[in-house]
Amino acid sequence: MTAEHPPRPYGTSERLEPLVRRVLARNPSPFTYTGTQSYVVGAGDAVAVIDPGPLEEEHLDALVEAVGDARIAAICCTHTHRDHSPAAAPLAERTGAPIVGCAPLALSDEGPRLDASFDDAYRPDRVLGHGESVEGPDWTLTAVATPGHTSNHLCFALEESGALFTGDHVMGWSTSVVVPPDGDMAQYMDSLKHLHDREDRVYYPAHGPAVEKPRQLVRGMIGHRRQRERQILRQLEQDRGVIEDMVPHMYKGTDERLWPAAGRSVLAHLIDLERRGEVARSGNVWTLTT
User: Fold this and answer.
1) For this UniProt entry, which segments traverse the membrane (predicted)?
2) Among 69, 93, 98, 129, which lies 20 to 30 A Cα-Cα from 219?
3) Which domain range does residue 198 map to?
């Protein structure tokens, strides 16, 4: 990452509020910002760990140190990308804690996908459905289903403080990548609208700083996605019907390393527009239907 970011406290437990601490993994990249942020929830003798992160020994050691003498009552995963869930199994082996949270991802075989980004070894002891909770002596985490970035994505609401752990669904530093066929733009937009209707006080994403004005950010994200959709329709009006031709015009100023991922989000928009009857495709060429 660039020098504009502040020093990164890798391997250090930072207290964000009485019931929440953050531990940053050393896996910075254009997709993870400064790295994956794992959260330790609870101040008593039993805590939860949210998004234990990548399989990095340094990070595992830092999580165990942050937990200290407390018991881990639940290892909670928002989804199963490799920067979020692989550390769950070794952390469970070290501590005896159950893995609780999102469902294992049933990979679709419809079309190309980025299989390497998924943790196919993830095995939860308990899957949480929307509205189901896991509890400790001073905390309650309630699952909020937010499919779209992935079909199995969950957020976790900390009932006692009004905080929402948003994984990759909402981040202040970047929009979330939606990669078909598992990622679904219509579901993603519905999930954003669902979060906008909630009254959470603060968001703690898996990457980037806390979001202090959640509804304002989500409203902006919904507007941004609608603007992207309009951009795509304008590209089609100008006879740019191939995604690789659209992306350079739509993402000027964006790191070119991110263009392939941006192209997948464009595809997700096009699939949504196709379902709504506004566009059609022939091979890899897309056209307007009207």
Assistant:
1) none
2) 129
3) 13-212
